Amino acid sequence: MQQPEQLSVNEYLRQHIRTVADWPAPGVQFRDITPLLQDPKVFRVLVDAFVHRYMDKDLRPDVVAGLDARGFIIGAVIAYELNVGFVPIRKKGKLPFTTVEETYELEYGSATVELHSDAVKPGDRVLLIDDLIATGGTMMAGKKLLERLGATVTEGAVIVDLPELGGSQRLRDAGLKIFNLVDFDGH
C-alpha cells in the first residue's frame, strides 16, 4: 500500500477499509472499519483528520456524541483530543440513569436508542459521530434525542458514507450537515 504522503487522506483510509462480500446477508458489501483501528499509524491518520477539522473555531463542538457502538471508539478519542466532553447514545436498556429515547425504523422492524436526560445542556453545540451512514436511521434518531434536550447538532461525522442507500441525503434534507472521509458508491 502507498503511504499517506503519496495519497490523499481519504484514499489512504479507503485502502484500509475491508470489504466483506455477502455479510450479513447475500448481496451486501459490508464495509469493515476495524483495519483502520488495528494499525496505530492508520488510526492516527483517521483521528487526526477529524480532529484537525473540528479544531476550527467555527466547527468546534462543546460535546461529542457517539452512536452505539463504533461511534464510541472514534468519538471518545476525538472528544479527548479536542478537550471536550463525550456522551454515548446507546441501544435501549444499556444506560443506568434517567433517559430519553427515540425509536427508528430498520429494514425489518425497528430499534431504539437512548441518551441520559442530563447528557447535554440547552444550547450545547454537539458533533454527532458514527462509523458509517447507510440508511441514516440511527444518526437521525441521535439528532432528535440531542435536539429534544435543547442541544444543536452542528454536524454529523462518519468515516464511511454509503450514498446509494440514501441516508446521507435524508439527513441533509432534515437539516443536518454531513462530513465523511470516504464514500463507497456500491462497488
From TrEMBL:
Pfam families registered for this protein in UniProt: Pribosyltran
Instruction: Tell me where in or outside the cell this protein is found.
Output: Cytoplasm
EC number(s) per entry: 2.4.2.7
Please name the pathway: Purine metabolism; AMP biosynthesis via salvage pathway; AMP from adenine: step 1/1
Relate the protein's function as given in its record.
Catalyzes a salvage reaction resulting in the formation of AMP, that is energically less costly than de novo synthesis.
Please name the InterPro entries in this protein's record: Ade_phspho_trans (IPR005764), PRTase-like (IPR029057), PRTase_dom (IPR000836), UPRTase/APRTase (IPR050054)
Write down the SUPFAM superfamilies for this protein, in alphabetical order: PRTase-like
Q: Which reaction does it catalyse?
A: AMP + diphosphate = 5-phospho-alpha-D-ribose 1-diphosphate + adenine
Protein name per Swiss-Prot or TrEMBL: Adenine phosphoribosyltransferase
Its organism's taxonomic lineage begins at: Bacteria, Pseudomonadati, Pseudomonadota, Betaproteobacteria, Burkholderiales
Q: Which residues form the Phosphoribosyltransferase domain?
A: 36-164
**Alphabetical GO biological process terms:** adenine salvage; AMP salvage; purine ribonucleoside salvage
The keyword Magnesium appears for this protein:
no
Instruction: State the oligomer form and interacting partners.
Output: Homodimer.
- What GO molecular function annotation could you give as one example from this UniProt entry? adenine binding
Q: Which family does it belong to?
A: Belongs to the purine/pyrimidine phosphoribosyltransferase family.
Look up keyword Glycosyltransferase and say if it applies. Answer: yes
GO cellular-component term (any): cytoplasm
Keywords in alphabetical order: Cytoplasm, Glycosyltransferase, Purine salvage, Transferase
